[in-house]
Every structure is written in structure tokens, then in C-alpha cells.
Amino acid sequence: MVPDVSKQEYLDMYRDMWRVRQFETALEREYKLGNVPGMLHTGVGQEATLVAVAHALRREDGIFPDHRCHGLLFLKGTPGEKIMAELFGKATGICSGKGVPLHSADGRVNNFGNNAIEGSFMVTALGIALGWKMQGKDSLVAVMVGDGTAGRGEWHESLNLAGVWKLPILYCCVNNGYAISTPVGFSHTTSNLVDFARGYNIPAQQVDGNDLRAASQATREAVEHIRAGEGPYFVEYKTWRWQGPFSGDFRPPQEVKYWKEEHEPMRMARAELLKRGVSGEDVETMEKAAEEEIESWVAFAKSSPAPDPAKATADVYAGGEVKRA
Ligand SMILES: Cc1ncc(C[n+]2csc(CCOP(=O)(O)OP(=O)(O)O)c2C)c(N)n1
Ligand SMILES: [Mg+2]
Predict the structure, then answer these.
(1) pTM of the model
(2) What is the predicted pLDDT for the residue at 318?
(3) What is the pLDDT of residues 46-94, one digit of tens each?
(4) Tens digits of per-residue pLDDT, 100-141?
(5) Alpha helix locations (H) across the chain?
(6) Which residue owns the Cα nearest ligand 1 atom 13?
(7) Nearest bound ligand to CA 148?
(8) Using CA atoms, how far apart are residues 204 and 221, in angstroms rounded to an integer?
(9) Which residue CA neighbors atom 9 of ligand 1 most closely?
(10) Residues 181-192, mean pLDDT to the nearest whole number
């Protein structure tokens, strides 16, 4: 068992949850105003899971974020305004507006990038983890995957090989109950994906992904195991995303009420914070500062120029340009 987080660490994690909530809320608002191109999937409702992962990692650890991990991108160390500008498709974005949500990366913080083909990066992660293991590094690679990925071939290849070679991979399985509108148990032989990991003989835990303290505890235990050279670890975070792929909600009203009110991660984390002796006034001041920070990133993104069409083929592949035929 790893020790509980200190009051200060809990406060820092709460602040980051609030930053993620504000980031996603502002992004959704701007998306509806037509300022954000393409499709948008937000991580609203999954803040405790994201922050638990972010705080358990070091800067040199690798991440493969999925489509609901905008928050993890800036928590990993990329300047927030560069993430926001990227999502707005602007030239000042971290990938000059060419990556937008599904293809942006930042090598400076070992963010190896998302991929539009769900699950595909689970095999890419094997290569990085193997390389680092061979070099004797104690860094690990965190892979963020949704429940909808668990039927993919890459998912199973990745867990098997990581287990055989004892690779330093932290599998973060964000089980929010649905892939598009299909419940987990309709498309898999179990609704508890931790069962699959155990089938591959990989140490695994299922945790309440809306409970910051529990999610953080499980993630830090996993990281400790991996850094000790013991091989991969799988954590299944049971959570719920507010925003599905479409407007409106297909989920039963009672379920919506449970996750948005009774088991809401921000509310739960705030209650714990007050229990630990932080004053309501201090929490509000901190929240206000976070909101201002996020709005400054939005303003930066809005006022940034669009990419120059003449540079459309620059930086597309590392070290060179794609030549026109
Ligand atoms: C291989 C593949 N199949 C289908 C899609 C289309 N698609 C995008 S998101 C998504 C659902 C993913 O569900 P899940 O992994 O549970 O993530 P969630 O959106 O619930 O967080 C699908 C099917 C895709 N991107 N890649
Ligand atoms: Mg899902």
C-alpha cells in the first residue's frame, strides 16, 4: 500500500481537476460557437481519473492520450495555451494546428500522441517501453484507452506481449460504460475489463474513477510496481462521461442523475477537501484563478492566426517535408 496523499497534494490535485473541468467546459462552449473545428469529445466527468494519472507520472514518463484526454496534455507539461490553440486549429498550437485533437503530440514531454484508430497505439507503446527497458531507464509509458477499445486485436496483443516481456506500461482503462452508445457488456464478454487483464496474468485493479483518493491510490500503487521493474500494471477506472458523441442523451435519466449529481467527481473531491480542513473561501479563490487562467488560453487561441496554407506540408514527417508529386 502506498501512503495517502498529503493535504497539499490533495489540494493541488483538486485544482488540476477544476482546471480540466474549466478547460473542457470552455472548449465545448467555443465548439458550439463554431470556433473549434472537427469533432469534439470532452473529458467532463472523468477529471478524477485524469488527474490521478497525471500526478502519478514524472515528466520523462511517456503518455499515449486518447480522445478525452485534453486535460492530460497540459497536465503533462505542455503549455495550456498551446494545447488550446491546437484544438482551435491555429498556427500557434503545439503542432501548428495540424494535429488538432486526434493527432497532436509533444515530444518535449514524451507525449507520443493520440491516433484516430482506437487502440492502435497500444502496440506502438510496446516499442517505446521495450526501448526504455533495454536502455535501463526507469521511465514508464501510460496508455489511456476507453472501454470501447477492449475488443480490438491490438489491445490483446499489447497486454500479452507486455506481460511476457515485463514491459514498463501502465494501462489506464477508462471504463465510462459506453462506446458511442453501446454498453460495455453488449460488446465484450464482461463489463469488468479488469477480468481481461487478469486473464493475461497482469496485476490489475478496478477502482472508482470518480473518487480522486481511490483513483490516485491505485495509480500510485501501479506506478510503484512498474518502477520496481515488475512489468506492466492495469488499472480499470469506473467512471462516466457527460458528453457523448452526439447532442442529447440516450442514457436512462436515473443513471444520468447518479453520475452528474450523486457521484459527481468535483463535488466528491471538494467535500473531501473541506473535510481535510481547507476553507470554502480558499477553494473558491483557487477556482476563480483557474477559470481566469483557462479563459486567457481561450483568448490566446482565438486571437492566434490560422495556419499558413504555404506551410501545409512542413513538419508533417519528422526531419523533412512531404514533396508534392
Ligand atoms: C478502430 C476504430 N473503430 C471505430 C472508431 C470510431 N470511434 C471513435 S470514438 C469511438 C468510441 C470509443 O469508445 P470508448 O473507447 O469507450 O471511448 P469513450 O468515447 O467512451 O471515452 C469509436 C467507435 C475509431 N476511432 N477507431
Ligand atoms: Mg467508453
Answers:
(1) 0.96
(2) 64
(3) 999 999 999 999 999 999 999 999 999 999 999 999 999 999 999 999 9
(4) 889 999 999 999 999 999 999 999 999 999 999 999 999 999
(5) 7-32, 47-56, 70-75, 80-87, 100-103, 121-134, 153-165, 184-187, 194-199, 212-227, 253-257, 265-275, 280-303
(6) 179
(7) 1
(8) 10
(9) 180
(10) 97
Share of the chain above pLDDT 90, in %: 90
Does residue 312 have a pLDDT over 90?
no
Residue to mutate (ligand 1; options 40, 117, 180; most atoms within 8 A of CB): 180
Q: How sure is the predictor about 324, in pLDDT bands with cuts at 50, 70 and 90?
A: low
Question: 141: CA distance to ligand 2 center in Å?
Answer: 21
Query: Of the ligands numbered here, which is closest to the C-alpha atom of 66?
Result: 1
What distance in Å separates the CA atoms of residue 69 and residue 46, rounded to the nearest whole number?
9
Cα-to-centroid distance, 182 and ligand 1 (Å): 10
Task: State the closest ligand 1 atom to the C-alpha of 176, by its place in the atom list counted from 1.
Answer: 20
CA of 244 to the centre of ligand 1 (A): 11
Please give all residues whose beta carbon lies within 6 A of any atom in ligand 1, as ranges. Answer: 41, 68, 116-118, 146-149, 176, 178-180, 241
Angle between helices 212-227 and 7-32 (to 10 degrees): 110
The grid cell for 56 is: 502519478
Phi-psi region of 34 (alpha: psi -120 to 50; beta: other; left: phi over 0): left
